[in-house]
Design brief:
By secondary structure, the protein is mainly β. Helix content is 8%, strand content 37%.
């Protein structure tokens, strides 16, 4: 799920058809703290508390020569959010999520698109908490 935010100023006409020049503002930063994981864009934020996060995995998209890294946060309801490497704080978030789970930080440079998604949350042992 991409989190698009911003005003509705790009809507024109009676039926609210998007204008051809409208570019929605997207998530600017990702934050990991004691509450959970959230994305922010200055005006809006969206997040999930740790108690409701089922798992977090990191992966790379093809092609290899231009791979794109992202992580996926899955809510217990089945909803999910994807955060791409272009979002401010991406690498720190991956490192912090893994550390909270007691896992080593993944080597993001070594991830390949052909690799399976790498789980970084929850903790390897079920008794550990953030």
């Amino acid at each position: 799920m991409k989190t698009f935010t911003g005003g509705r100023s790009g809507l024109v006409g009676r039926h609210g058809q998007p204008s051809s020049v409208t570019v929605p503002q997207v998530t600017e930063r990702v934050v990991v703290d004691d509450v959970g994981i959230r994305t922010e864009d200055g005006d809006y934020c969206f997040g999930m508390p740790w108690s409701e996060i089922q798992h977090v995995s990191v992966s790379a998209l093809a092609p290899e020569e231009h791979k794109f890294l992202y992580f996926e946060v899955t809510h217990v309801s089945g909803e999910f959010m994807e955060v791409g490497e272009t979002v401010d704080g991406f690498r720190e978030a991956v490192r912090d999520i893994a550390a909270r789970a007691g896992r080593p930080a993944p080597d993001l440079g070594a991830l390949r698109a052909s690799d399976p998604m790498l789980e970084i949350w929850p903790a390897p042992n079920p008794g550990a908490r953030p």
